Amino acid sequence: MVTVTPVRTKAEKNAFVELQYRLNRDDPNWVPPLRDEVNGLITPGKNPWFEHAEAELFLARRDGRVVGRISAQVDALVLEHMGAGTGQWGMFEAEDAETAQALIAAAEGWLKAKGMTRSLGPFSLGIWDEPGLLVKGQDHPPMVMMGHNLAAYEDWVEAAGYKGVKDLYTYDLDVTNDFPPLIQRIVASGQKNPRIRVRNVDKSRFDEEAALILSILNDAWGDNWGFIPLTDSEIAFAGEKLKPLVFEDMIRIAEYDGEPVAFMMSLPNINRVLKGLDGKLFPFGWAKILWWLKRGKFGEARVPLMGVVKRLQASRIASQLAFMLIGTIRAEAGPKYAISRGEVGWILDDNQGMVAIADAIEAKINRVYRVYEKAL
Hints:
- This protein is of the alpha+beta class.
- The chain has two domains: 2-166, Aminopeptidase, CATH 3.40.630; 172-369, 3-Layer(aba) Sandwich (Aminopeptidase).
- Helix content is 37%, strand content 29%.
- It is built from twelve helices and 15 strands.
- The protein has helices spanning 10-24, 35-41, 76-82, 97-113, 152-159, 181-192, 206-221, 232-242, 271-274, 285-295, 316-336, 352-360; strands at residues 2-6, 53-62, 65-75, 86-94, 118-121, 123-124, 130-131, 133-136, 163-174, 196-200, 251-256, 259-268, 300-308, 341-348, 364-375.
- The strands form two sheets. Strands 1, 2, 3, 4, 5, 8, 9, 10, 11, 12, 13, 14 and 15 form a 13-stranded mixed sheet that branches. It has a two-stranded antiparallel sheet with strand order 6-7.
- 38% of the residues are buried.
- The model has no long low-confidence stretch (mean pLDDT 95).
């Protein structure tokens, strides 16, 4: 028999964190996250997400042994932007189908008690962390800041009455190949246009540049499904975590008539070094990370964010700017950092503009994350 109880003690919180390492240890494609980051994610006072949201963490036990975990959360910004009564769940790990059903039922019960009428997930914890359940792509490791789960979870979630509401795509790109001729001509035309300038970010003005990028992002993504604006404290929190991964020539800003109107962020795939650390920075993990970053031969990179301001999105210039940003980073940063493979995304399945851009540069969908919903 499976029993599910909320996390109340420090020992239970540690068990919540540790479970994923045991359940996923034999999966050759799972990348262990740093324990410090997982603890920070679920701790009020450390993660500013808790300034506008609350979460309950649950553990499942069978015969006294921990066999599963889940979070249930209510976010004031989700209620504002995605509709009243929208609760969420995430941080999902389970040993078997019986455990999965018990966990999901516990999360739903908590959401109902909070007055929620719709259950949406998984989100661990918000859409800017690890959204969606991996339903395609378990045969290779995820890149930086993307989740990974057992294929069985898809059946277990659907058995609980959930239906897919949105798919998020990541696209694989061989960056050693040239763009197709048409795209090369579009990029060349943009490079000759005196009204367009593509520049590196300036890490010496990190806070200012981060604020600029987030202002473009908020404008560009504002109408997208699931968009939740980041608060100032969340921007600062994310900036602090990402700063070691920021290389000036891997993040570009496009200006049109002197106005910043588009950006593209690419990050080295630090998962390549995290995979061998078992989630531990000490005693030698931190040194391995620093050596890898300093060596600067990354092999792979991911584009987690890019955007063009809303007023230009319906114009030809929008796709031209996107191709120029991708092309510039591919041509200049690719050889410098020995990057042969890139991943673009996630991209919403109904984001026709970005899907068309990915198709035009001959990128292929390699992972699909699915967000599910259920009426409560």
